[in-house]
Amino acid sequence: MAANVIGTRLEGCSEEPITGFYRDGLCNTGANDTGTHVVCAEMTDEFLEFTASKGNDLSTPRPEFRFPGLTAGDRWCLCAMRWEEARRAGAAPRVVLGATHIGALEFVDEAHLREHAAE
Hints:
Blueprint: E1 37-42, H1 45-53, E2 75-79, H2 80-88, E3 94-95, H3 110-115
Antiparallel strand pairs: 1-2, 1-3
C-alpha cells in the first residue's frame, strides 16, 4: 500500500468528485502518470483561476476524461509541479497531508506542504 507524506498509509482524497490519476479516490501514481498527480488539495477560486491562466482549466467539465469540473471546496489530486508553481505564485490551495502521496516530496518541500496543511 502507498504511503503519504506523513509516513502512514495513503488516505482517500475524494470520491465526490472522484479523483486520482486512476479515478479511485486516491492520489496514487504510477509509470503512466506523467503529471505525477499526488497532491491532495482543497480547491479555491484563486487556484482555479491560476491554473486556468496556465492553460489547465479545471473548472470546465470534460466528460470524455471522466472529469466533472471543479469548484472551490472540492478536493482533487493535483500535479505536484503545478501545486509548487502555484505556491511560488502565492496561489497554492490547502493540502490534505494524509491523502498526499509520499512521491510529492520529489517535487515539493515537506515544510511547504505542512505550511499549507488543511488539517
